[in-house]
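Justification of computing resources. Each target in the renewal requires a structure prediction run like the one illustrated here; the chain below, 228 residues long, is used simply to show the kind of job we budget for.
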Amino acid sequence: MTPQRPIVIAGPSANCGKTELACQLIAALPGAQALKITRFHREEHCPVHGVNDQGQDNCDGCAPAPAGFELIDDPAVLATPNKDTDRLQRAGASKVLWLRAAPASFNYALQKAVQRFDPQKPLVVEGNSAATVDDFDATVVVIWPQKTRGLKASVLPALKRCDVLVLVEAEGAPARPLPHTLRSACHRIGMDENRLPQVLWVKANWWQQPKDAQSSLIALCTDVGTRK
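Resulting structure tokens:
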């Protein structure tokens, strides 16, 4: 059998819908596995802390770093309530791992993490950092809401190699202008907005829509990978 290409879910900021989209894909793909990625950063450059009044104090990227990286498979840790790994498990993932890595060792750490999964089963990777590794063969899906909590630098490489761009409508706004943060990102990487990858617009509460309304989103995210 031909190994399946992982699907990387990326986004411009915290709380932009990456984990929810990962969960929807897992629920739709029989036997799907999941890898949650956290790359360490210096706290003063944290994309979660101090962004706005909703800033959180429990950022995993600010936690004390192990030597290089750690791959967490402890069921008790993965099942911590409200953690992304718990959500991925509850979505039906057949296997979930959590990779925490420093930037200097990330490429090596990602390679080691992927080796722990069955290549014949779908693998959903939640985290921008996987898309920064040029030789990591994957389908890259970027979800981008109208309002974001800042703009992570790590989304720029993901946008460059994006296969599917999911744009989320603003609440109560039928118009579909490109998010200003997306325009800013295009400018920073020298990408003409007219050359953005395949775009799919979804409603602000897309995850609450009937399953048949979500089918085009799920099909697009999965079918693009099989056509590569």
